[in-house]
Design brief:
The protein is mostly helical. It has helices at 3-32, 38-61, 68-90, 95-119. It is elongated and about 45 Å long. The chain crosses the membrane at residues 46-64, 71-90, 102-120.
Length: 123
Amino acid sequence: MSFRFASAFTAAFLCLIGLVMVFIPATYLDRTGIEVTDVAVFLQQRIGLVCWGWAALMLAFANIEPSPLRLRIALINIIMMTVLAGLAVYEWHQAIVGVNMLRLALGNMVIAGLYLSTLFHKG
């Protein structure tokens, strides 16, 4: 897998997850009758917006060569998603929101791992 493909794929993944995180609380949760705190919904929507920001960054990376700076940013991404997994456990009583955050964290950690592997790929 090439570095540019990994960057573009990561950007697409983050855009999709961001879309789900921003719009699911406003539509699906209200109709199911699940009681979700305003803070949990606010947090989930902000995480979706952060995903869009990371997607824009990854898309920008698709046009430049690998560098130590991108390695650091990918590592920061993994750390952020680990913190997000902790928040998911903390919000577990908010069933849907907790599950969504955990899925986002684990999925993004896998994507970040693939992304990191391309930095060390020769050719």
